[in-house]
Amino acid sequence: MNRANLTVPNLLTASRLALVPFVVWYLAQDRLDVAFWLFAAAALTDLLDGNLARLLNQRSVLGAWLDPIADKAMLLSTLMMLVWLEILPLWLGALVALRDVIVLLGAAAFRQLTGGLEVAPTWWGKAATAAEFVLVALALADLALGWGLTFLGYLTLLTGTLVSVSGLHYVWVWSAKTRAWRAAQARFRS
């Protein structure tokens, strides 16, 4: 790793990525308390890394790439483990995976077509990710700390709805970008 990339924010982000297999392992071993506290530590690094990057003026290209990868790896792996443990429903795991595959394929197809790619999360995408995070965090907390939360079913439905809407919105956004690019190419050739 380049010395310029050895910043406190990047190290925090890397530590979040490094925690992923441990959270998965402890969930698989039915050590829900340890998995919850590791997930909570990862969430804390997520709160700190971006704020510290701005505060310390240590923004970097590596951090801009690594942060969403670490977020997605932690969230998706924990959510899928909760589905595997039958804590969250299979349909939600399938819906989240399908939406993520559609987004990745749409981005790859647009990049292949145009040679460029500017990725910007939409409001719907952010809302879906926030709902996924809250659901996973509360489900883990409920399991590890025995809170007896009775509203997780409703939160699951809300999360599924937001994931569906965000997936459809991403399809609409990529389609609109593709149509605009093709129209610009047609005007250029004329």
Protein model, in words:
Keywords: Lipid biosynthesis, Lipid metabolism, Membrane, Phospholipid biosynthesis, Phospholipid metabolism, Transferase, Transmembrane, Transmembrane helix. It is a single chain. The model has no long low-confidence stretch (mean pLDDT 87). The chain contains 6 helices and no strands. It starts with 7 loop residues before the first helix and ends with a helix. The longest helix is centred in the C-terminal third of the chain and has 38 residues. The protein is globular, with a radius of gyration of 19 Å. The chain is an all-alpha fold.
Query: What percentage of residues falls in helices of 4 or more residues?
Result: over 70%
Tell me the structural class.
Answer: mainly alpha
Indicate the radius of gyration in whole angstroms. Answer: 19 Å
Instruction: List low-pLDDT spans.
Output: none
Q: Could you give the order of the helices and strands? A: HHHHHH
Question: What does the overall shape look like?
Answer: globular
Q: How confident is the prediction overall: mean pLDDT?
A: 87
Number of domains: 2
Number of DSSP strands? Answer: 0
Provide a count of the helices.
Answer: 6
Largest sheet, if any? none
End-to-end Cα distance: 48 Å
Question: What fraction of the residues are assigned to beta strands by DSSP?
Answer: under 5%
GO molecular function, one term: CDP-diacylglycerol-glycerol-3-phosphate 3-phosphatidyltransferase activity
Pfam families: CDP-OH_P_transf (PF01066)
Keywords: Lipid biosynthesis, Lipid metabolism, Membrane, Phospholipid biosynthesis, Phospholipid metabolism, Transferase, Transmembrane, Transmembrane helix
Subcellular location: Membrane
